[in-house]
Each structure stands twice: as C-alpha cells, then as structure tokens.
Design brief:
By secondary structure, the chain is mainly alpha-helical. It contains five helices and no strands.
C-alpha cells in the first residue's frame, strides 16, 4: 500500500469518526429533547458539538501534511493535534459550564457519547485495513 493510499485511508477513517460522533451526539440530544425538554436537548447538542468540533480540529492537524509525511511530522501532527483538541475542549467546557442556561448532565452525556462515536468510527474499517496490508 502506498503512502498516498495510507493518507486517503486516514482521511476516510477521520471522516467516519466525526460522522459517528455527530450521529450519536444527535441521538442523545433528541432523546434529551424528547424526555426532558428544550433546555436539556440544547445542552446535549452543545456537548456533542464540542466533542465533534474538537475531534475535527485534531483530525485536521494530524492530516494536514498529506503525502509528504515523515515520521517526525506525523508525530508532531499527532501531538499538536491532541494539544489543540484538549485545549479547545477544556476552554469550551469551561465557557459552557459558566452559563446558567446549560444543563450539565445532558451536556456531559452527549459529550461522552462522542467518545463512543470515536471508537465506533475508528474500528469501522479495521478489518479492511488488515486485509489490505497482508495482501
């Protein structure tokens, strides 16, 4: 498998992760809206949005180099992306929790659901990747 194929596979996997996070976060927001009310639904949507936005930033930082990627650049992209993600997430969570209009439990539930989406999206094509590398 060429480096271009690996980059394309990484981009597809990043997109799958973000889409899974968005879908699961939206499901949690809809459930909160239907069972608790508008405020809970909006808070859950905010929590999911924070998780999705942070993962998108990390994916962009990791995958911005394209096919001219060296091991050192890959490591730097990963760690810089992770730092941006953590800083962005903490800043947005602090801002959200300072607002009296945000319910913490639905926000955290939807944010936590983005972690499930992260793993579901990450393992989505794991089997295909193993087959391609062995053949």
């Amino acid at each position: 498998m060429s480096i271009l194929d690996e980059v394309q596979r990484g981009r597809r996997q990043a997109l799958a992760v973000v889409l899974c996070q968005a879908v699961l976060g939206a499901i949690v927001a809809i459930v909160c809206l239907a069972t608790v009310g508008t405020r809970a639904g909006a808070s859950a949507l905010l929590g999911a949005g924070i998780g999705v936005a942070a993962t998108t930033l990390m994916a962009l930082a990791m995958l911005r180099h394209g096919e001219s990627l060296s091991v050192a650049r890959a490591a730097l992209g990963f760690f810089s992306g992770w730092l941006v993600k953590v800083g962005f997430t903490v800043a947005l969570l602090v801002i959200a929790f300072r607002s009296p209009k945000v319910d913490a439990v639905p926000l955290l539930a939807a944010y936590a659901s983005t972690y499930v989406g992260y793993w579901v999206g990450a393992v989505r094509d794991w089997g295909d990747g193993r087959q391609n590398r062995s053949g």
